[in-house]
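Page 37, continued from 36.
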């Protein structure tokens, strides 16, 4: 009996050792992956502190010989970078706000309301995801042009106010909310809008935050549509403004990296503050419905 107990203890210690070794391996791999993901940001920072000759010399110089903030001063003074920033903020804010409002109401209708052809209409909407976004650019531009909205903030925002991805994701969250809550609210005299706004919407907050970050990141980095619909320098967004730095004379890499580094900060800060809800929302969406 004593020998059996000793064997069980040895087996237990062996399992504990294997589990610790497995966890250590996972932590090491995750740390390496995190460090690798930081390499582009570190390279952007180092390049922004270099001079133009240093940034294009062969062999490449990893560290700047004489670190300088000249690129940041040039990006702020030689081009209307602040205007680009404001345009990107307004475009992202209004686009994402309207997207979330419309997508949340559509998701509620597709998940909680019963009407003829509901699932067929939803599948037709989801089928839009199979069509490349570039296929809509010319029709959207022609419509915006006929409405006289070219080179305006409204023309930049309106074509993107409906997000089928956000609708699909939020529908999954609504399907995960027990129907008993809605039935109890109906018995208490609440209408569908009150149930949607006061009861169900707060319950899917992780999904709302996840969709807001994803759609905000897409709008903030969108290059193609702002490039097509805007022609005035004062109407350009950050991606288009930074892309315009490239010319026949070459690419001012320190200026470009300084601008890109400042452009990525808002989305990075947003993710850091709301990463818990973002991860929770993405993880939960796959098991709803």
């Amino acid at each position: 009996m004593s020998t059996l107990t000793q064997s069980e203890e040895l087996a237990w210690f062996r399992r504990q050792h294997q589990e610790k070794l497995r966890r250590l391996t996972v932590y090491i791999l995750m740390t390496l992956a995190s460090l690798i993901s930081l390499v582009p940001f570190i390279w952007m920072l180092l390049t922004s502190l270099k001079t133009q000759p240093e940034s294009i010399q062969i062999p490449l110089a990893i560290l700047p010989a004489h670190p300088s903030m000249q690129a940041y001063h040039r990006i702020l003074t030689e081009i209307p970078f602040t205007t680009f920033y404001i345009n990107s903020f307004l475009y992202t804010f209004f686009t994402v706000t309207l997207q979330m409002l419309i997508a949340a109401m559509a998701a509620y209708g597709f998940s909680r309301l019963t009407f003829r052809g509901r699932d067929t209409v939803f599948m037709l909407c989801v089928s839009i995801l199979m069509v490349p976004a570039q296929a809509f650019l010319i029709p959207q531009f022609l419509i915006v042009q006929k409405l006289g909205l070219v080179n305006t903030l409204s023309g930049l925002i309106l074509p993107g106010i409906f997000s089928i991805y956000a609708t699909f994701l939020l529908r999954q969250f609504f399907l995960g909310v027990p129907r008993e809550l809605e039935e109890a609210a109906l018995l208490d005299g609440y209408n569908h809008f009150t149930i949607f706004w006061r009861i169900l919407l707060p319950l899917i907050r992780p999904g709302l935050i996840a969709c807001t970050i994803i759609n905000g990141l897409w709008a903030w980095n969108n290059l193609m549509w702002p490039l097509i619909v805007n022609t005035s320098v004062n109407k350009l967004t950050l991606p288009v403004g930074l892309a315009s730095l490239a010319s026949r004379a070459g690419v001012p890499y320190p200026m470009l990296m300084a601008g890109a580094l400042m452009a990525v900060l808002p989305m990075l800060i947003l993710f850091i503050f709301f990463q818990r809800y973002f991860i929770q929302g993405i993880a939960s969406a796959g098991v709803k419905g």
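Residues 2-48 form the longest helix (47 residues). Flag for discussion at group meeting. DSSP finds 14 helices and no strands in the chain.
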